[in-house]
Write a structure and sequence with these properties.
Shape: elongated
Main location: membrane
CATH superfamily of the largest domain: ABC transporter type 1, transmembrane domain
Number of domains: 2
Number of helices: 21
Strand order of the largest sheet: 6-7-8-3-9-10
Strand content: 5-15%
GO molecular function, one term: ATP binding
Number of strands: 10
Structural class: alpha/beta
Mean pLDDT: 83
CATH architecture of the largest domain: Up-down Bundle
Domain ABC transporter: 364-597
Keywords: ATP-binding, Cell membrane, Membrane, Nucleotide-binding, Transmembrane, Transmembrane helix
CATH topology of the largest domain: ABC transporter transmembrane region fold
Distance between the termini: 48 Å
Radius of gyration: 36 Å
CATH class of the largest domain: Mainly Alpha
Bound molecules: adenosine-5'-triphosphate
Largest sheet: 6 strands, mixed
Low-confidence stretches: 1-12
Subcellular location: Cell membrane
């Protein structure tokens, strides 16, 4: 499966299935606003009625008053006012419905974005291994925006144009069925013209769209890598590359406009003239009576009202297609199975198990654990391990030996199909989400700070008190440097914590983990990117947790875990050595001894 196939609607999905998927999603998103749709149809029908009433009043004015010189002024004034006002009223009503449907579209997109975002938050980690961030963000922003177009442009324009078209054809039929039949027979030419236009302009439209996303991509890339870009003095080269893409985009847009100016409009105008000529010719063939003049006037007025909606409807089809594909992609993402739910019912079981368990339970017990990301490529083999509560455990091993994988399994990021993991005697799967997150804290290698204040970064939306936040910050030895910032805990840390040094970010991440008062603290190479002085601060913080919190620390820097109660050495997914530092150093030629001596050598 290609990496992005989770996110794109598979090609095998037929357009019919995609359309069904898209419209069922639209219905779901618009459900609370459904009544607006009904009202919009009613009001648009009324607007269409006003629209077709105008020429009928014009006809009455000509046929009943002007030609027979029957100058009934009050009635003539009424008809004239009706003729002028009907168009305005129709436009006014139509505008109000556009506002109504735009509101519906905005609210639906808002709901859809919320649905997609909250759904993405609940997806299992295995999904993100395959997902491409840019595409995922695009689902939440661009694709939902395309859905908005579906509502506003497609729904409104198609609805409005169809109602006007049907109303006008009905009025024409009422005036002269035969002539209406002739106009109707000629109308498919509009479809042919619009179809040809779309074929002609399609390459330019596609090119312009691709170049627009190139422009966005280049901007994002340059801003993201600004330090590398400036350090390499690449501003000019990047500027030139951007200018070229921008120029290509302009050219593509020009080509699109040329297709419109040279083909669509002239062809439609010509067709309009032909239609007009046909109508006048047919009338010319007849013995023109006074009443025919009014009908002729009404017919000529109606022609524009038939052609324009038809153009509008046809022009929406490519939009419709794009929007359907975008909506189907959103629907596919929403169909992704969420991570296994750990329900409240499980709390009962967990609590019961906790209480029924006799004697002190190990903080972590792993039995015969096997794991593979991809079938046939095992990463962990028959791992068994018991970690007593309050212990400080270090995990070391070569890169790719499975250390982070083991932490991911302890964090429930992936289900382990073989073997078992229990925390304080309760199977991992039986622990309710909230309790699990309170029980286990993580300090990742990359601290991941939000563009928010120091307080918010420690709190992470948990609603902790200032006292709790400060206690955690003190425990992580972060309090002093936070207080030294210009606004203390309220200091905004900038995007990704850009205002802090790497070591300080790591201390905030430790404070964040400790603020949840976890019974088990996992550290995934939390000291690899920090200086020795900050490492000592981290070590001090870990020492102070000894006996109170079970600490499991992966460390490339062996000095971090030198004082651990027990060090576990992983090699190709197997535990090959285990024991305290001194004991492992006694194993002649052992992996730990070699790793340690190698590091001593490189730091001396
Ligand atoms: N999400 C993933 N999907 C597929 N394979 C993965 C994934 N994450 C890790 N692996 C593979 O699993 C093996 C163990 O990786 P893991 O990250 O657990 O090793 P590690 O010991 O933590 O390495 P490092 O010290 O470099 O972080 C590696 O072969 C790696 O390529």
């Amino acid at each position: 499966m290609p990496p992005d196939s989770m996110l794109t609607t598979p090609d095998t999905t037929s357009i019919g299935a995609q359309t069904r998927q898209a419209f069922s999603l639209l219905r779901r998103a618009a459900r609370p606003d459904q009544h607006h749709l009904g009202w919009a149809v009613l009001w648009l029908m009324l607007a269409a009625l006003f629209e077709v009433m105008g020429p009928i009043m014009g006809k009455a004015l000509i046929d009943e008053h002007l030609l027979p010189h029957h100058l009934d002024w009050p009635r003539m004034a009424l008809l004239l006012a009706g003729l002028l006002l009907s168009g305005w009223i129709a436009s006014g009503l139509r505008y109000l419905q556009l506002v109504r449907l735009s509101g519906l579209a905005m609210r639906s997109v808002m709901r859809l974005r919320e649905m997609v975002y909250t759904h993405v938050l609940l997806l299992p980690m295995s999904f993100f291994d395959r997902a491409i961030t840019g595409q995922l963000v695009s689902r939440v922003t661009n694709d939902t925006e395309a859905v908005k177009n579906l509502y506003i442009q497609v729904l409104f324009v198609i609805l409005d144009s169809t109602i006007v078209l049907v109303g006008t054809i009905a009025a024409m039929a009422w005036l002269d069925v035969r002539l209406m039949g002739m106009v109707l027979a000629l109308l498919p030419a509009v479809l042919v013209i619009v179809f040809l236009y779309q074929r002609w302009s399609a390459p330019a439209v596609t090119r312009a769209r691709a170049l627009r996303s190139d422009i966005n991509g280049q901007m994002a890339e340059s801003i993201g890598g600004m330090s590398v870009l400036q350090a390499n003095n690449a501003q000019q080269r990047f500027g030139a590359r951007f200018a070229a893409t921008n120029q290509a985009h302009y050219t593509a847009r020009q080509a699109e406009l040329r297709a419109n100016a040279w083909l669509l409009r002239p062809a439609l105008d010509l067709f309009n003239v032909i239609l007009l000529a046909v109508v006048i010719f047919v009338f010319g063939q007849r013995q023109m009576t006074a009443t025919e003049v009014g009908v002729l006037y009404a017919f000529i007025s109606y022609l524009a009202r038939v052609i324009e909606p038809l153009i509008q409807i046809t022009m929406q089809f490519s939009q419709l297609q794009q929007a359907v594909v975008a909506s189907a992609r959103v629907a596919t993402l929403l169909d992704e199975a969420e991570a296994k739910e750990h329900t409240a019912a499980a709390i009962g079981q967990a609590a019961a198990a906790d209480q029924s368990s006799s004697g002190p339970q190990p903080a972590v017990a792993i039995r015969h654990l096997d794991f593979a990301y991809n079938p046939g490529q095992p990463v962990l083999h028959d791992l068994s391990l018991e970690i007593p509560a309050g212990a400080f455990i270090g995990i070391v091993g070569h890169t790719g030996s499975g250390k982070s994988t083991l932490l991911s399994l302890l964090l429930r990021f992936y289900p382990a199909p073989h073997g078992s993991i229990t925390l304080h005697g309760v199977a991992l799967d039986d622990i309710d989400n909230e309790r699990f997150r309170a029980e286990v804290g993580l300090v990742p290698q990359d601290p991941f700070l939000l563009a928010a204040s120091a307080r918010d970064n420690i709190d992470m939306g948990r609603g902790l008190t200032q006292a709790q936040i400060e206690t955690a910050a003190r425990a992580a030895h972060a309090h002093d440097f936070i207080m030294a910032l210009d606004r203390g805990y309220d200091t905004e840390l900038g995007e990704g914590g850009s205002r802090l040094a790497v070591g300080q970010k790591q201390l905030i991440a430790i404070a964040r983990a400790l603020a949840g008062q976890p019974r088990i603290l996992l550290l995934d190479e939390a000291t690899s990117h920090i200086d020795s002085q900050t490492e000592q601060v981290v070590q001090l913080a870990l020492d102070e947790l000894r006996g109170k919190v079970t600490v499991i620390a992966i460390a490339h820097r062996l000095s971090t875990i030198r004082d651990a109660d027990r060090i576990i050495v992983l090699n190709h997914g197997r535990i090959t050595e285990t024991g305290p530092h001194e004991a492992l150093m006694q194993i002649e030629g052992g992996l730990y001894q070699r790793l340690y001596l190698l590091q001593q050598l490189s730091t001396s």
